[in-house]
Amino acid sequence: MAADGGNRPGVRSLAVRQLLPHPVDDVDPVALYATDERPVPADRPWVMANMVASADGATAVDGRSGALGGPADRAAFTAIRAVADVILVAAGTARTEGYGPPRTPPALQGQRRARGQTPKPRIAVVTRRVDLDLGAELFGDPDSRCLVVLPEDTATERVAAVAEVADVVPAGRGGVDLKACLAHLRTAGVAVVLAEGGPSLLGQLVAADLVDELCLTLAPALVAGESDRIVHGADLPDGLAPLHLDRVLEQDGTLLLRYRRVR
After folding, report:
1. Nearest Cα residue to 33 out of 50, 19, 58, 45
2. Mind listing the pLDDT tens digit for each residue in 187-196?
3. pLDDT, tens digit (0-9, with 9 covering 90-100), for 126-164
């Protein structure tokens, strides 16, 4: 999950080592994530998840993930966001973490244009109750208009209010159907979706087997307490969703892990 409100700038001055699949003393996380293979499914986008956790599995300190992040996490955060077309986040996480419009560095905007992407990714806020502050900074960037994913049976007047400041994505009745949401995004030309949490949103995606890639920052710290794990919710139908460890990066004790879903 994105620390610091999803607005962390890029960092390249730090030395990041690659430990797997083979040792390299100094690597550029932006270049690595940009060149990773992400085959797009026929009926939905490729779905990445990006989360940060302590060594004992906590996802937040005092309710926010920012304290767990560091220079390596910030570099990975920027690199991962740079490859996404849409960033999917639950409304509660957007509020807690103080989300604003994406701050994509100019150099990465140029790389995105060269790949045929928009200069910045778009934020898609998932909400069942549609209790949003429509005057928040998140809805104020005309260059990266926000998406709001909501139930199809949301009251008409509420949908109209949201549509004044965001593009509406109706998906499901009585709640948000994430599979329908992703199908809608794929039809609109979206190839890569990045899910930034929180744990309940990721739990729904994992339960529906919709996550293709997990990027996990493991902070060298203990938190204890009762913080959620990175995925929270109902048990999986088959008990486990196997992952393949594709890459391990390290910087000053912080580990950046990239997993791919094994199907």
Report:
1. 50
2. 999 999 999 9
3. 999 999 999 999 999 888 899 999 999 999 999 999 999
- In this prediction the pTM is 0.90
Question: CA-CA distance, 146 to 126, in Å (whole number)?
Answer: 11
Pairing of β 46-54 and β 192-195: parallel
